[in-house]
Amino acid sequence: MKRNLGQNFLAAEEILEEAAQAVSLKGKTVLEIGAGHGELTVFLAKDAKNVVALELDSKLIAPLRENLSLNEIKNVKIVCGDALEFDFSNYEIIYGNLPYYITTPLLFKIIKSGCKQAVLLVQAEVGERIVAESGSHEYSRLSVMVQSQADASIIDFVPKECFNPIPKVDSVLLKLVMKKNFVLGEKLVNALFQHKNQSVKNALVHSTAFLGLDKQKAREFADSLGFGGEKVFCLSLKQLETVCKKFNGFSEKT
Ligand code: SAH
User: Fold this and answer.
1) Residue 254, Cβ neighbours under 10 Å: how many?
2) Which residue, 6, 49, 108, 203, is most buried by CB atoms nearer than 10 A?
């Protein structure tokens, strides 16, 4: 099956404008993931010092270049390449109407990149999971991994009719402002959220093979937390940080 590379181009100027204005771009170099024909690039280039426009599909490079030249834009460097391979580490600001088929790996890459802010279009359901609060149905591994690294907010709802071709689902404009914070252990968070409706203690006991612990040690560890009886999906970020910190110390001892 040939992938369509998540090519749903944003046609709504007011959303493009709103996205470009969500962060102060003055004097900054911006990385844009999946530039397409330059729908968003044009708006970013007006305010930023430079834009690096990354696009995987070589067939889009000529129309992208043409669109920029029609708008007399000269501060954009076009790179034909794969965002999953590209080095994100030198950019303070990252933008993208993210290709839906790789949203999660790209989000993880962005939050680990060392950038300061990101403005992203993502499927509405994904955006809602990212900003979900503990205790809610949408609260998930994605919520805690992103929220431990960034203040995440939804700037606007973007109905599917704003895109061409029209995709199956609506999107949201998401803003991430990175914070210097404790990095949650991905493996432990994965283990817990695989059993998110269970107590922390049971989730740990059921993940012993995955975590390389024996069941008795998992019980001891859960008891040492003081909140081992709480349901995983009700844990606050602070509590998850405690679990990860204690787990690092605990697994070093065993
Ligand atoms: N920025 C444009 C296009 C968004 S559609 C707009 O807002 O309208 C997503 C774009 O990402 C498409 O142009 C698609 O070709 C590109 N793309 C898909 N996979 C990619 C990848 N792995 N690396 C870089 N770009 C990719």
Assistant:
1) 10
2) 203
pLDDT single digits (tens) 220-237: 999 999 999 999 999 999
The residues pairing with 103 across neighbouring beta strands, listed in sequence order, are none
Q: Is 6 in the pocket of ligand 1 (CB under 6 A)?
A: yes
**Three-state SS string across 183-231, please?**
CCCHHHHHHHHCCCCCEHHHHHHCCHHHHCCCHHHHHHHHHHHCCCCCE
* Ligand 1 atom, smallest distance to 98 CA: 9
Local structure of residue 102 (DSSP, 8 states): G
Instruction: Specify the pTM.
Output: 0.88
- Measuring from atom 3 of ligand 1, which residue has the nearest CA? 36
pLDDT digits (tens, 9 = 90+) for 80-139: 999 999 999 999 999 999 999 999 999 999 999 999 999 999 999 999 999 999 999 999
